[in-house]
Each structure stands twice: as structure tokens, then as C-alpha cells.
Write a structure and sequence with these properties.
77 residues; 3 helices; globular
Amino acid sequence: MFMPETVDVLTEKRQREISIVVDCLKKFRPTKVALEVLKENGASLNNEYNAFRKGDLKLTASERHQFGFKLANEMQR
């Protein structure tokens, strides 16, 4: 089995890079941010996002958290 090297996206360097991507996406001025999730997990994802907005959730390395939640939060969505 092939095991690719993984990058720790929670390092300071990677967080700066993610911030740059989020800033670039903000230039499109999105009115909605859609994240891919199974229908039955939609409510759970919304609960996670609301907890994040309240400061009650520490973001993980997941794409949903690092890009989706951060972009939606920056855009006040």
C-alpha cells in the first residue's frame, strides 16, 4: 500500500498559506459557502460551525474547517 507523506496544516507556515487562499476566495465575495457532506450529517456540520462561531470549537485539520469554516466566518455567513 502506498502511503503518501502528509503535511501538518496546523503549523504556523501552513496556516499563513491557508489565510492567503481564504483571502483570495474572499475577493469573489461569495454569498454562500457550500461544503460537501452527507445529507444525514448536515445538521451536525451546522452545529459544528455554530460552535466555531461562538468560540466553542477548536478547528481540526479538515478541509471543511480550514477553508470552509474560515471563509464562511470571514464573509459573515
